[in-house]
Structures are given as C-alpha cells and as structure tokens.
Amino acid sequence: AEAGLVTAGAAASMLLQAAACMTGTDPAKIAQIPDTTGVKNELVIHRSHRMGYDQAYIVAGATLVEVGEGRSVKPGELEAAINDKTAGVIHICRGWRFGNLELPEVVEIAHSHGVPVIVDASGMTPPLENLTKFVSQGADMVGFSGGKGLEGPQSTGILCGRSDLIEAAR
Ligand SMILES: *Cc1c(COP(=O)(O)O)cnc(C)c1O
C-alpha cells in the first residue's frame, strides 16, 4: 500500500476510515465531526454486510445507506445509492458466499463516481496474501485486526491504503 497506520484494532480502523472519507485533511471538518453539518457523510453498505461492528462508522458521524434486497445486491442498486453526499462505499470482507457484489466490481462502480472504497478485512488473515490483495484490487483503505490471525496484541490493527486518506486518518 502507499501508506499505513497502526490502529487500536480493526474497529478503530473502521472509525478512522469513515472520518477520513468525510473530512479529508480539512482541519475545520476534522474538528467538527461527528457533527456532519455541511460535510459529505453518507457511507453506502450492502444490507447483508450489516453487523455489530459497523457502529464504528456511525460513531465517526457517518450515516449508513443500505443497498440490496436480502442477501443480494445488483450493480444498479449500488450505483443508484451514490450521490453528492456519498463519502465512501463500505465493503466488509468476510468470505461471504451469497449474492453480493465482489470487491473489484464495487471498486469499479465507486471509482467511476469518484468515491473511495473502504474495506474491513478484520479477520481475513490467514492467508497473509490478503494483506495486499484488497489494495491490489483497488480498495482505497483496508483495515485488519492485529489480534486475530496476525496473532498480535488484541488492541492493535493495521489501516493501509491511499496516502492522502491515510494522512487524513492520522
Ligand atoms: C473482529 C471484527 C472487527 C473488530 O476487530 P478488532 O480488531 O477487535 O477491533 C471488525 N470487523 C469484523 C468483520 C470483525 O470480524
């Protein structure tokens, strides 16, 4: 990845991803959140990717916009959810086996609208090749747990990706 940051866990990475997408490196916006008045604050997420940890995005001030019916999402549904309030598109990597969009397809749609894709890959190690796979598939920021398959201390994590967004997260 272009840049990286040690975080206090994957959940902390999720919060920082949301914040970075909303504020960039604008000091006034950084000081303002979680009040997002006048700030792009929508994060699009597959309905089937919702889970307890996604509160971390909301804590940063983001509003989650769900797409899809049940366990299936069509490209047009993702496309239709993106508007000028959209700060990013969330992709939770968890070895899903049902009708979700794959990460490369999500990246293609989001990037065609100039919107970053943020990935939660908390438990996606092993295999270690996943540490680089999602960035190579075009994800703008990816978060990993230090305390799961990486076997580091519980309260650690890695956030990596585009240098401007990592700078914003920092
Ligand atoms: C475990 C988990 C997290 C939180 O990870 P921590 O490193 O404990 O903060 C976030 N997202 C998913 C999908 C997880 O499985």
Can you walk through the features of this model?
It contains seven helices and seven strands, in the order βααβαβαβαβαββα. The chain has a seven-stranded mixed sheet, sandwiched between helices. The chain is α/β, with parallel strands linked by helices and 170 residues long. The model has no long low-confidence stretch (mean pLDDT 96). Helix 6 links the parallel strand 5 and strand 6 (141-145). Pyridoxal-5'-phosphate is lined by residues 9-11, 53, 92, 94, 120, 122-123, 145, 147, 157.
Largest sheet: 7 strands, mixed
Strand tally, please? Answer: 7
| Tally of helical runs | 7
Q: Can you give the mean pLDDT?
A: 96
Instruction: Give the neighbour order of strands across the main sheet.
Output: 1-7-6-5-4-2-3
Uncertain runs with pLDDT below 50, 5 residues or more?
none
Give the % helix.
25-40%
CA-based shape: globular
Secondary-structure element string: EHHEHEHEHEHEEH
Bound molecules: pyridoxal-5'-phosphate
Rg over CA atoms? 15 Å
Distance between the termini: 15 Å
Features:
170 residues; binds pyridoxal-5'-phosphate; 7 strands; seven-stranded mixed β-sheet; globular; 7 helices; single chain; alpha/beta
In a few lines, what is going on in this structure?
This protein has 170 residues and is an alpha/beta fold.
List the helices and strands and how they pair.
Elements: E1 3-7, H1 10-23, H2 27-32, E2 42-46, H3 55-59, E3 63-67, H4 75-81, E4 86-92, H5 103-112, E5 117-120, H6 130-136, E6 141-145, E7 157-161, H7 163-169
Parallel strand pairs: 2-3, 2-4, 4-5, 5-6
Antiparallel strand pairs: 1-7, 6-7
Helix pairs in contact: 1-7
This protein binds pyridoxal-5'-phosphate (PLP).
The site of pyridoxal-5'-phosphate has 12 residues, from helix 1.
